[in-house]
Amino acid sequence: MSNRLVHATSPYLLQHADNPVDWWQWEPAAFEEARRRNVPVFLSVGYSACHWCHVMAHESFEDEAAAAYMNEHFVNVKVDREERPDVDAVYMEAVQAATGQGGWPMSVFMTPDGEPFYFGTYFPPEPRHGMASFRQVLEGVDSAWTDRREEVAEVAAKIVRELAERSLAYNAPEMPAEEELAQALLGLTREYDPVSGWLGGGDTKFPPSMVIEFLLRHHARTESEGALEMAQGMCDAMGRSSLYDQLGGGFHRYVLRQRADGPLVPHFEKMLYDNALLCRVYAHLWRATGSDLARRVALETADFLVSELRTQEGGFASALDADSDDGSGKHVEGAYYVWTPEQLRAVLGDEDAEFAARRFLVTEKGTFEEGASVLQLSETEAESAGLGLAEAGRVASVRARLLAARAQRPAPGRDDKVVAAWNGLAIAALAETGAFFDRPDLVERATEAADLLVRVHMDEGARLARTSKDGKAGANAGVLEDYADVAEGFLALASVTGEGVWLDFAGFLLDIVIDQFVGEGGALYDTANDAEKLIRRPQDPTDSATPSGWTAAAGALLSYAAHTGSEAHRAAAEGALGVVKALGPRAPRFIGWGLAVAEAALDGPREVAVVGPADDPLTKDLHRVALLAQAPGAVVAVGEVGSEEFPLLADRPAGAYVCRHFVCDAPTAEPSVLRERLGADAEAGTGVGG
Fold first, then answer.
1. What pLDDT score was predicted for residue 538?
2. pLDDT(200) > 90
3. Which residues, 6 or more positions from 433, have their beta carbon under 8 angstroms from its beta carbon?
């Protein structure tokens, strides 16, 4: 029999709808039931592409005996962290404070008032490596609740009190200056390994998308060769490694070294947010360097987004699972992506299989598990660029045949939930990649996703739903990152298409950010003033896998102010950047997007108005030069003489204008002059024009 989760819209929750556990969604009725029964709440938080979430579900939540004990002694609540990032953030903060670590599945035991008193992540079905079994944990918590209730209440109250006292005391009263950005660059230089191309120590490597964007913007503003070398080195390392799907394009979640002398192997889930951010970063790297690898990876990742993650309604699904059927009915992590020499020979024949094994580092011993290897490139970017036509054709043939053979394997599952924030990131990436590489189809896909967000996610008051599925909005309210990243996507689309309606929609969202999310001293909260009250109002300015809502909002507010001249939005952006002044020099890896936004603020950002007939080749050339300019965070408006689509175009004769704060240079009709004015040394906006 199905449980209550059968009515959920989240694919992750629906995966648990047939568990014998009597699951509830996060809702007031669940906590009322816990009060009525006088039992604690067990909260389990995960997400669809989480490998260990599936493991614990199979071992414990599908087990009749474990489920019977859970149902008798607890009210059990299952949460998709991607639907409720606020719930996830608040209780993960408690888990990390109590245990020094965190992860998913997250397991929290709490009072009927939502106050946590015992935490963990994955629990095995039997005691293992000094870890208690899940049944032992359940029995221990039940015993404490029954026999030591006052002690439990004291622990819970203490935890809530300590969380409430964790206020953000480090939001500086002004935005960062040149000194703080230089210190951040120095800190990154110390953490960067120029030999491997990876950032940071440790055996686990996540893609540092936001840091790379900062490095590219810093180079564009200051001409720092060191910043560009680091950005190139990181992108080269990722693009050649097993983090990148060398056949189908797109990036896995992270790579790790399983043994001291072993290779880096991926955790195979593919997330929309990673691929959207990295697609845009590689496109920006190509814009700065002309790198063939950057061009290839940007386009292949864009094509992956469209071919593998695009939904029937025109949005983009959240993720592909790490696990898939290995052909024997057993779900195995990475089964879809790995190869043995024997499998290469079966598809390619002996000669091409030997060639492919050398190029993609497939060995008899294997670089992953059970003799299988994850594909990665053996040569450097320079060596790859130097391939002759015949060898390049051979590489293309091998890739095409392997990809066709892989398509016959059972594919990983897909989480079809459309998350507003991550779709905003994808819109920005596809719009710019399409514009840079003359791929109007990618711009069309970006526009269709934006249309979906307006039609389905945005209500009449411009309030956003966090998710949708099958064209129907979910019940959960959008959080700060949704408003910020969707606005970022709309602003990028406006610059590429010249359609001012996207600027208008961005403005609606950013007005709500100012009204609902900005707190005292310019600080931002992750939930709105009128959102559901949790034991703590979540607030985090640091990047994780995506830009924090705080710094994403700062970036979108800054761009909107550049487009419109709005002092209110500029002031809100500058107020939000105070945290970058405080954190940037000390922890640059964890506030990369804030550093990137600060680069744009120090540069202006520059405002480019291109005025002329839409079908005039000169207008198109000037527009392309503007879009390909590296000036950090530059905004672009294009339209006909007399157009009212963008404030930047108002009352301007034909030509291209480069401005700062709506003070502009004299217009030019020369693409070369426009390119020069948008360079690192240009003093744009020093004229007297309006």
1. 93
2. no
3. 279, 280, 283, 298, 299, 302, 439, 442
- State how far the Cα of 608 lies from the Cα of 622, in Å rounded to an integer: 10
Measured CA to CA, the distance from residue 501 to residue 91 in angstroms comes to 39
- In the chain, what percentage of residues exceed pLDDT 90? 87
Q: How confident is the model at residue 240 (pLDDT cuts 50, 70, 90)?
A: very high
- The pLDDT-based confidence of 685 (bands split at 50, 70, 90) is very low
In whole angstroms, give the CA distance from residue 318 to residue 50: 12
* Confidence grade of residue 624 (pLDDT, cut at 50, 70, 90): very high
Nearest Cα to Cα of residue 249 among 293, 198, 184 = 293
Looking at the predicted structure, is the pLDDT value of residue 690 above 80?
Answer: no
DSSP SS3 for 498: coil
CA-based nearest residue to 369, from 391, 341, 344, 340: 340
Omega within 30 of 0 (cis) for the link into 105: yes
Say which amino acid occupies 319. A
The pLDDT of residue 686:
44
User: CA-to-CA distance for 302 and 272, rounded, in angstroms?
Assistant: 11
Pairing type for strands 264-267 and 75-80 reads: unpaired
Q: Is the dihedral of CA 277, 280, 286, 287 positive or negative?
A: negative
Backbone angles phi, psi at 594, to 5 degrees: -60, -40
Q: How far apart are CA 20 and CA 64, in angstroms?
A: 6
User: Shortest CA distance to 662 belongs to which of 640, 683, 639, 689?
Assistant: 689
Contact 273, 429 (CB under 8 A): no
